[in-house]
Amino acid sequence: MSSRLASGKLFQSLRNSQPLIRHYAARPEAVTDPKKEIIRRALYPSNIRNRASPTGTWRPDVGLAIQHAIPSVQAHNTIERAWLLHKRQIRKRREAELARKFESMRKAMEELEKIDTRLYMEANRQEDPRARSEAERQLAKTLRSSELRAVEARVRGLFPRELRVPTETPPPSGWNYEWNPIQRPI
């Protein structure tokens, strides 16, 4: 009887210390790739706090670990100032690198202006991304709404949004042989 009572109290204390878990919103998942499941569990560990997480999201002894690592307020302040100094140094290095690149680009543009003013003017021409030619307006009249949204969302000169990221394996649904990119008239 006492072992049942002790295990009941232990169970009750564990239930009270854990946050609520949403089981009602769980999606019924079909059989998935075990690699994906392992990656998902590593990236998004569960929020059950009954054991230490390997990804560092929760540790029961975090207070003790901090007290052992940083014994005093002065040590904590010193570490904090050193971290802020490190971040400032990184920021200054990045700003210096950007300034160097900008100066190099400015010199290249000055050289282009000296060599060929027409190319310089073309490189600095402002283009309204919302402006549409007559051919594009005629094409927009023939497209479906989803295709029209894809055409309107694409900014000329940037990477097309409808292209997929290259992967090592094909998608589980297979190849879509009917898909064709929308050709924008220039």
From TrEMBL:
<dbReference type="InterPro" id="IPR042831">
    <property type="entry name" value="Ribosomal_mL40_fung"/>
</dbReference>
<protein>
    <recommendedName>
        <fullName>Large ribosomal subunit protein mL40</fullName>
    </recommendedName>
</protein>
<dbReference type="GO" id="GO:0032543">
    <property type="term" value="P:mitochondrial translation"/>
</dbReference>
<keyword id="KW-0689">Ribosomal protein</keyword>
<dbReference type="GO" id="GO:0005739">
    <property type="term" value="C:mitochondrion"/>
</dbReference>
<dbReference type="GO" id="GO:0003735">
    <property type="term" value="F:structural constituent of ribosome"/>
</dbReference>
<keyword id="KW-0687">Ribonucleoprotein</keyword>
<dbReference type="GO" id="GO:0005840">
    <property type="term" value="C:ribosome"/>
</dbReference>
<dbReference type="InterPro" id="IPR019192">
    <property type="entry name" value="Ribosomal_mL40"/>
</dbReference>
<dbReference type="Pfam" id="PF09812">
    <property type="entry name" value="MRP-L28"/>
</dbReference>
<keyword id="KW-0496">Mitochondrion</keyword>
<dbReference type="GO" id="GO:1990904">
    <property type="term" value="C:ribonucleoprotein complex"/>
</dbReference>
<keyword id="KW-0809">Transit peptide</keyword>
<comment type="similarity">
    <text>Belongs to the mitochondrion-specific ribosomal protein mL40 family.</text>
</comment>
